[in-house]
Structures are given as structure tokens and as C-alpha cells.
Amino acid sequence: MYLNYFGLQTEPFSIAPDPQFLYMSERHQEALAHLSYGLQGSGGFILLTGEVGTGKTTVSRALLEQLPEATRTAFILNPMLNETELLATLCDEFGIRYAKRNITNKRLTDKLQEFLLTAHAAGEQCVVLIDEAQHLRSQVLEQLRLLTNLETNQHKLLRVILIGQPELQDLLRRRELRQLAQRITARYHLLPLQAADTQRYINYRLQVAGAQRELFDNAALKLVHYYSEGIPRRLNLLCDRALLAAYNDQVQVVGKAQVKAAARELDVSPSQTPRRMSIALVTTMVIALVGTAALSWWFNSSANTATTLAAAQPVSAASTQQPLQSLLRAWQLPQPPADVELCRWLEEYQLGCVQGRLRFDRIKALNLPVLLQLQDGGWQAVTSESATPNANWTGEFLAVFPLPPGYQLRAEDTYQRWLGEQLRQTTAQQQDSLAELVTALQQQHGLPVSGELDGLTLAWLTSHHTDFGPRLAMQQEQQ
After folding, report:
1. Domain ranges of the chain
2. Are 475 and 277 in contact (CB under 8 A)?
3. What confidence score (pLDDT) does residue 417 get?
4. How far apart are CA 273 and CA 226, in angstroms?
5. What number does CATH give the domain 1-12+195-266?
6. Is the pLDDT of residue 200 over 80?
7. pLDDT in tens, 62-71
């Protein structure tokens, strides 16, 4: 209806997975790199998880496009199968002929093994991709593991890519699946888009659809990100309805009024969203104090890279059970095991931890929601707007923040480009070395001056250069 009005050639925000509109954010590219690495390794299973609508299908399609021509692929889009149905589906997908009558698991398995050996001899790689894998039964997953037992001295003859929602992580922690879990050589949890990526995503799709000018003003872009929480599928729905609202209002550019109208039509009202979002914001970048040197990221001036560390006093998931629930909702993560070391577990989801002791005014300057550890072992949630901490506060904290792009993969070019850009934007200095920029940042913003990229400094950078600051500001505006 609005295409001619805005000069568009096709619908820019259809939820159909059209490769023409494929947009790979930095997080999507990082996920793709993890999965590509897994296919090159010697393991049999690769895992991709993420909340509904975060772009798992986008990543999997991009992965399949990068596979060598000598790759045989099988797709399982309906995981509600038993063992026999799974084996039969794999045979169908690979084009393996078998007698439909009196089929047994052994006959199907023998057919598959013969096919895999023949494909390997011909220099072909066989890959199985299973979507919505959180619905797989334990017996079916065990059958897949048995299929991956077929191998040469160097390679597995069958690779399995499991794609699913966060519940898939919980499924794979079951004791009866521990052998399969140990064979996962690459895993990635896809987080929603950050604010900058949301803006690029919207503008890219509009450009592909034929837009000759910007159709969303800055306030509208921020509000779309706020309502959608950075989830691409929600972005598409909101932007489509916002364009329709702008057409109905006969305005040339989508503004906040049209985005709010779209949110109301999609049953995401301003009265509901701030309450839901405030829970996320209180703990999205959690702080729970325990000693700066205990868990730090340090800056290596010679290699110009950051390295991970081990916690001297690890914090368990059980010890922060109540505030942890809000943290999980904010990051769309599954429930962790009770006895797990929290920071180590969070690393699996591209999140970093920093523990430390700092004055409360310096903590507030981080502009992050925090948890404060109390003398009785409890925790107090505190936002940057809160007045004072509890009188029983021990002075210790732990911050959780998203890892910079390329960090976990040690992709130095990507990581260094991000780091240098953020430091120069913050310090307004262009020519200094990264070590000098770090020192200038610490001096300007009241951080402990170490001259190293410690955890506190990296947490400050990510909190001031991701979507959390804008979302907090918009929450206050809405309330």
C-alpha cells in the first residue's frame, strides 16, 4: 500500500527470509566465523542458539552459502521425530534409496554409513542441519551421536549443526547426553542487535528496496530499537507498520508518533514496555563487587590484544539466584546449573565479567545498573539513578558486559578496529597509541589509572558504546 508513496520497489520489511535482504551484523558475522571454524575442525557437532527472531536462520543460510561445492547437505526442519524417522529422513535428504517396507534402524544406519564412506572417498563432506533442535528427543540426539562415530584418523564423516532456542542448552546438559555435549567443538549464542546495528539494518533494507532517501528520523530509529529490543523479526514488524502509519498520516518521514502507533497495533504499549524493559535494564550490565584484580582484562602493549583471566574468588550461579533471574531475562539466556562459576558460564554467551572494589560515585559513573554485595551475603540491585547503597554494602562488585566483536575469536583486526574507534571517540584524540588512549580515558572518567585495558575500563567502553545507554535514556523519557 505504501510502496509508491515512499518510492519503494518492493516490501523492505517482509519477514520472509529473502537472501536479497540479508544483513550480517558484527555479531552475526562472529557467529558465522565460529560455525565455519567448527566445520573445519575434527568434532562432530556445532551449536547455534538464540532467542526467537534473533537471526539464527540468517546465519545458517550464510554458512551454507560458504560451504565448498563438494558438500552434501541434509536439512531437518521438523525435529519432532523418533529414531527411525530421523534415519529415514536423513536417507531421503541425502538421496539414499532404501526399501520402505520392513525398515529397521540397523538397515537405515548401514545405508547411511555406506553413503558416508562413499562420499568421503569422493572428497565430499556431509553436513546435517537441524532447526528448532530444542524439540529433539534425547534418544534422537543419541542416535545422531552414534552416527558421528564413523570417522577417519583425521575427520568425522558426518557433521551435525544444531540450531535452536536457549532451551537447547538446557537439553544438552542432561547427564544422558554428556557424551554428545563433549563433542560440540563450536558454539555461539546469538544476542539481539545493538542500537547502531539496528539503524544500519533498517537503512540497509530500505536501500535494497529502492529507497532514495532516509525514511526514519533518528528518534524513530531509537524508539524502534527500544520496542523491538534489537530482535530482527520484531524490527521488521514494527518498521512495516510504522511505514503504513506514516502513509496513513501522509507524512514523508517516519517519526516517534508513527512508531508508537505501530507498537500499539502490535500490542506493545508504552505503558507495558518500560516496566518490562526496566527489569532488563536493572541487570543487563550487572555489577556485584568482589575485587578488581581478581578478574581483569589487561592490555598487552606489545600485542595490543586483551586476554581473559581466571577468577580468584569465583561467584556461583546459586549465590545470586534472585537477581540472576532478571539477568537471564535481560540477556535471553537459559537457566545455568546451580554449581557453575557464573563468569565462566557467561563467557559461553559472549559476555565478559569484571570484579572489583570501587567507590560508589565511580560505580554510578559507569552508567550501568549494578548489584552490590552485602555483608549478610545478599545482593542489592542499584541503577545509576539510585541514591545510595545499602548500609551493609561490602564495597565489592562484579560487572557483566558484552564482549567486543572479534574478541573471543582473537580476530585482532576486528577487535583492534573496534577498540581504537571507541577510544578515539571517547578521548577525542586521534594519533596516540592504544595504551595512551586507555590512560587518557581512565583519567578523564575517574577510573583507576592503570594504563592497561582492565575489566573496569572495557566495561565502561561497552556500556557507553552499545545500546544500553540509549535504552535507559528512552526508558526515563517514556516514564
Report:
1. 1-12+195-266, 26-190, 321-465
2. yes
3. 65
4. 9
5. 1.10.8
6. yes
7. 888 888 888 8
